[in-house]
Write a structure and sequence with these properties.
about 130 residues; Multidrug-efflux Transporter Regulator, Chain: A, Domain 2; 6 helices; 3 strands; about 5% strand
Amino acid sequence: MSDNLVTIGKVAARTGCHIETIRFYEKEALLPHPDRSAGGHRLYSTELIERLVFIRRSRELGFSMDEIRQLLSLVDGEQVSCQRVQHIADEHLRDVRAKIADLKKMERSLDDLSSQCSGDDVPDCPIIEVLQH
């Protein structure tokens, strides 16, 4: 095995990605299939590890698989269009803000429901009543 090629276990430890996640990214064609050792073990180059880190960081920011594909296609192209990357990021930011707004509504609703409940050991719970009707 060459010094610059590492096994999937070492890649997982180095990047914080689970082995199953790495295989999933390969299956989804986000990560190219790596070379294999004579024994059939996956061997990852520095370039593939850097790509995996890019994917992991993108997932941490909540980018969807499709958005990551778009970003990777830009990275893989001749020239990265910062304008296109910004457009993808801005669309994602709008989605994140919409989710936050929905979560805030949910929080208010749950807070209202919770405040209606006395917490006593009574047969009629206001929260259950609201959920059933």
